[in-house]
């Protein structure tokens, strides 16, 4: 209850502070980005290298569970749930407008709005939603899954999966409380910001379809509708509710991408993506370490965007780790890690390849001045303008809106489910959190997100995500250390020794005794 009360207070502060909080939040983000960007970049590099080693080494063969345990979900169901839960509707929106923001700034030494910069802008979003981002979930998923299914530890909170924090001492109890608070704080900051960013876009689409004025009252009505939809999903629980939404989400997303790919400049989009993949490989090390160049034009936009996204992905890490762990019993650590990269990273990169490529094509060809709309009216208006260029405009608006609703329902339902599990007491391993607990957290999510909508602006989303993600850098470091400590002691899978070639014994010729035949003596 103290955690619930805290976030009610924070939500009310956003509602009362309104747009006056923008300056404060932006200053907080700028300070963290300027002084501590090396921490964001450093933890992602360490995490990426560490779990690549785990996946490729003999540790990757460790199964989460007993030797005869089988996965509860098919590969497609598992991948759908992982993908749908992690990304929400943000990918449908930001994949259209991020490249338009990027192309206005000099990237990797190219001039703003130049032909090369269009290609750089197309690639940058794929890095920020690519393998390094998705690998961050492994820091929580692997250790939680191992402790739950191999050590049979009842993991109610993230701190339960860290052996180094267990014990009756006052210091360890305090550390567990701090870790658990930061986890809930991060989830609220990340998921709440996502919903707060997505509702205005959906409101704009509804206004275009119905002619209703796009006001705060329309957004409030949408929150009420979403709350009812989420409640129906939460009552169904993990199986039957979230997994069905996830499957519907994947097929809707694939259908929407296919339509844009085939009605747009298909050949141009494919060629652009091939070029972007080459650029991604070329600049991967520089982007990972922050050693990019802005040609002397002030702060490096590549680093600042990456730091923002790294903070956002960190806020998702605790709840995604527990969610992935809960659905991964019977899978090996290697399957979990590469499954996340396959379904997650490649899926997100596909959105930026197609939707981002289409937006840039419209801008570069002069068909629509999307950058002017983005800079003067905001990203909701720019997204609506992109959708208006597709055939069957109103049908596409409906398909896009439905896709966003399914994304939102999946992510917020799963988030409330996980947070309610973290904050439940005396929950048995096979028991789900109570419906009342889940509904309380659903309401907190909605109230917090509405506060963000009330403050307004994408900078507000960026600031809250960066602030919420910062303390989770240290939580991630503890998870990595804990993972190494438990895996090196595991004896279920041992590293295969090098084959020993048996030395052949030297054959000593046998000297037979000479037998004298006495008859011939």
TrEMBL record:
Membrane topology: Multi-pass membrane protein
Keyword set, alphabetical order: Cell membrane, Membrane, Transmembrane, Transmembrane helix, Transport
InterPro entries named in the record: BCCT_transptr
Pfam families membership: BCCT (PF02028)
Chief localization: membrane
Subcellular compartments: Cell membrane
Transmembrane segments: 37-56, 76-97, 132-149, 177-196, 216-238, 250-270, 307-324, 336-355, 394-419, 440-461, 467-487
Family, as annotated: Belongs to the BCCT transporter (TC 2.A.15) family.
Protein name listed in UniProt: BCCT family transporter
Native species: Lacticaseibacillus baoqingensis
Lineage, broadest ranks: Bacteria, Bacillati, Bacillota, Bacilli, Lactobacillales
């Amino acid at each position: 209850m103290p955690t619930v009360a805290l976030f009610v207070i924070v939500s009310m502060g956003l509602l009362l502070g309104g747009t006056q909080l923008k300056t404060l939040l932006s200053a907080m983000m700028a300070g963290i980005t300027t002084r501590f960007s090396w921490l964001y970049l450093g933890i992602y590099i360490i995490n990426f290298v560490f779990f690549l080693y785990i996946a490729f080494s003999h540790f990757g063969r460790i199964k989460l569970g007993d030797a005869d345990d089988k996965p509860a979900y098919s590969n497609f169901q598992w991948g759908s749930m992982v993908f749908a839960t992690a990304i929400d509707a943000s990918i449908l929106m930001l994949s259209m407008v991020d490249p338009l923001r990027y192309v206005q700034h000099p990237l990797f030494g190219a001039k703003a709005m130049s032909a090369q910069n269009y290609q750089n802008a197309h690639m940058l979003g794929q890095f920020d939603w690519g393998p390094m981002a998705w690998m961050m979930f492994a820091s929580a998923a692997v250790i939680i899954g191992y402790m739950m299914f191999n050590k049979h530890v009842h993991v109610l909170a993230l701190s339960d999966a860290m052996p180094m924090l267990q014990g009756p001492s006052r210091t360890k109890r305090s550390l567990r409380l701090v870790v658990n608070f930061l986890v809930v704080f991060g989830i609220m900051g990340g998921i709440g910001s996502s919903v707060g960013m997505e509702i205005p876009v959906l409101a704009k689409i509804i206004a275009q379809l119905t002619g209703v004025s796009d006001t705060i009252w329309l957004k409030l009505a949408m929150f009420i509708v979403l709350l009812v939809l989420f409640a129906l999903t939460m009552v169904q629980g993990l199986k039957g509710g979230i997994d069905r939404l996830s499957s519907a989400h994947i097929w809707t997303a694939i259908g929407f991408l296919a339509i844009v790919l085939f009605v747009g400049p298909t050949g141009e989009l494919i060629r652009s993506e091939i070029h972007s993949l080459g650029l991604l490989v070329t600049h991967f090390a520089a982007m990972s370490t922050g050693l990019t160049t802005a040609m002397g034009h002030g702060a490096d936009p590549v680093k600042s965007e990456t730091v923002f996204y790294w903070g956002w992905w960190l806020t998702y890490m605790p709840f995604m780790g527990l969610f992935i762990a809960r659905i991964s019993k019977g899978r090996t650590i290697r399957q979990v890690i590469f499954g996340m990269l396959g379904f997650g990273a490649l899926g997100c990169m596909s959105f930026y390849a197609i939707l981002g490529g289409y937006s840039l094509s419209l801008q570069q060809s002069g068909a629509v001045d999307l950058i002017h709309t983005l800079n003067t009216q905001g990203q909701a208006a720019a997204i609506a303008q992109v959708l208006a260029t597709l055939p069957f405009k109103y049908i596409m608006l409906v398909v896009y809106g439905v896709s966003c609703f399914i994304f939102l329902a999946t992510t917020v339902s799963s988030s409330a489910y996980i947070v309610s599990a973290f904050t439940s007491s005396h929950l048995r391993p096979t028991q789900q959190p109570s419906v009342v607990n889940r509904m309380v957290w659903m309401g907190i999510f909605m109230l917090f997100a509405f506060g963000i909508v009330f403050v307004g602006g994408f900078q507000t989303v960026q600031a809250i995500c960066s602030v919420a993600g910062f303390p989770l850098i240290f939580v991630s470091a503890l998870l990595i250390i804990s993972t190494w400590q438990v895996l090196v002691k595991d004896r279920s899978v041992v590293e295969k020794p090098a084959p020993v070639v048996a030395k052949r014994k030297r054959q000593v010729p046998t000297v037979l005794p000479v037998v004298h035949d006495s008859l011939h003596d």
